[in-house]
Structure formats: structure tokens, C-alpha cells
Amino acid sequence: MEILIDAQNKRLGNLASEVAHKLMGKHEPTFSRHAPVRHEVKVINASKLSIPEKKPKQKTYVRYSGHPSGIKYETMRELVAKKGYSEVVRLAVFGMLPRNRQRPLAMKRLSVSE
């Protein structure tokens, strides 16, 4: 089953929490934490999110390679220019999912289109 979510005029955090809720299966009456959910979630119109003017300049994403001085900082504006709004949504949802073995499986069931 595929769940379709329209991102037009939604705030990034609200959208990410809604998508994470669906990916975890909490919307189902048969929810249990250990059982993987087989629903796919598709987000459309990611480029039409409601993002305040200051957010692209202020929000930073951090990557660390594990090597000395291997830390990289990137603003939302740079990330959108390089990978698009779909990556911003994907990172927000990733942060809202629980940190367990099912997080990578849930992320495989997420597809985001601009």
C-alpha cells in the first residue's frame, strides 16, 4: 500500500513528523514497535514547502567522516542547490525516526519528489 502526502504549504517539521509517523506504522490499529511496516510513503511537491526566509541561511547540516578535521558544515541553501528539496525532507524525516535497526528499512520505503 502506498500513502501519498502532499507537501505544498506545509512546514518542514510538521511534514517530517507526519511522514515518520506513517513510516513507523503508528497510524495502524495493529501497531507494534518490533514489527516492520510494509507501507510505502510518497511525498510530492517537496519544492513547495512553506519555509521562512531566514531558515535557508541559518539551518546547518553537519557531516563527519571520522577522520581528523573531517567535519563539514553545509547550510540549507547549499544543500538545496546541490541536491534539491527532496534531500532536506529526507534528512528531516531521518532525524525523526527512532534510532534502531528499522530506521534504514523505513528510509528505503520513503520516496520524495519535487
Structural description of this entry:
By secondary structure, the protein is an alpha/beta fold. It is globular. It contains 5 helices and 5 strands; from the N terminus they run E-H-E-H-E-E-H-H-H-E. The mean pLDDT is 95. Helix 3 (76-83) crosses helix 4 (85-96).
Shape: globular
Helix content: 25-40%
Strand order of the largest sheet: 1-2-5
Output the CATH topology of the domain at 2-50 and 84-112: Ribosomal Protein L13p, Chain: A
Estimate the strand proportion.
Answer: 15-25%
CATH secondary-structure class of the domain at 2-50 and 84-112: Alpha Beta
CATH superfamily of the domain at 2-50 and 84-112: Ribosomal protein L13
| Helix/strand class | alpha/beta
Amino- and carboxy-terminal Cα gap = 21 Å
Mean pLDDT: 95
Largest sheet: 3 strands, parallel
Unreliable sequence segments: none
Nearest-angstrom radius of gyration?
15 Å
| N to C succession of SSEs | EHEHEEHHHE
Query: So how many helices?
Result: 5
By DSSP, the count of extended strands is 5
CATH architecture classification name of the domain at 2-50 and 84-112: Alpha-Beta Complex
